[in-house]
């Protein structure tokens, strides 16, 4: 039995807008992000969604709550669905990082490795899909985590460093017999309404 998984990036935050790295920092949705959350929720109107999962960070949780309200589901939050931890880089722009940390490597700054984040993503999403055979599930997470998972599923053809994941972009997967397949990447048609 196949599971359909809608993997959705949270709505916009102020830090997204000014390009500050968020990581595990708990930043709320801005006004546009709240509108995007409503728009992505309307996208699921009339569809049967069996479960909604979310990162425990508020930007994902609030986005997921709008979808859960629309589908009549409750939300299950998971720390394992969080964005990559960026340690000392969190709250900084890329320009500030280059100026302050030029000589330091990522490990010295307390940054989670890409491999660790990807393993966390694959484990968490496979557990979710395995728990819902024959069902449709929404998972609201973060751009970095979504791209790392997409990178895994496509063996590097898409995902980190290649694919842009927009705020409330929907990336859709099929999970059947222990195998993942990409059905759609970063669909934002709901934002054009």
TrEMBL record:
Highest taxon in the source lineage: Bacteria
Pfam families assigned: His_Phos_1 (PF00300)
Keyword match rRNA-binding: no
InterPro entries recorded: 6Pfruct_kin (IPR003094), His_Pase_superF_clade-1 (IPR013078), His_PPase_superfam (IPR029033), PG/BPGM_mutase_AS (IPR001345), PGM_Phosphatase (IPR050275)
GO terms assigned for molecular function: ATP binding; phosphatase activity
GO biological process, one term: fructose 2,6-bisphosphate metabolic process
Cellular component terms (Gene Ontology): cytoplasm
Protein name: Histidine phosphatase family protein
Organism of this sequence: Brevibacillus nitrificans
């Amino acid at each position: 039995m196949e599971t359909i998984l809608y993997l959705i990036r949270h709505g916009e935050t102020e830090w997204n807008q000014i390009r500050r790295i968020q990581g595990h920092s708990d930043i709320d949705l801005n006004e546009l992000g709240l509108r995007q959350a409503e728009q992505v929720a309307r996208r699921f109107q009339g569809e049967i969604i069996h479960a909604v999962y979310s990162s425990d960070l508020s930007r994902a949780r609030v986005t997921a709550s709008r979808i859960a309200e629309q589908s009549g589901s409750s939300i299950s939050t998971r720390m394992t669905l969080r964005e990559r931890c960026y340690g000392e880089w969190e709250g900084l722009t890329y320009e500030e990082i280059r100026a302050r940390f030029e000589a330091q490597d990522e490990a010295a700054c307390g940054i989670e490795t890409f491999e660790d984040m990807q393993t966390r993503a694959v484990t968490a999403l496979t557990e979710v899909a395995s728990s819902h055979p024959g069902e449709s599930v929404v998972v609201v997470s973060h751009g970095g985590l979504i791209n790392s998972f997409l990178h895994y599923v496509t063996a590097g053809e898409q995902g980190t460093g290649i694919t842009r994941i927009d705020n409330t972009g929907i990336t859709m997967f099929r999970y059947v017999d222990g195998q993942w397949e990409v059905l759609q990447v970063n669909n934002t048609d709901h934002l054009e309404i």
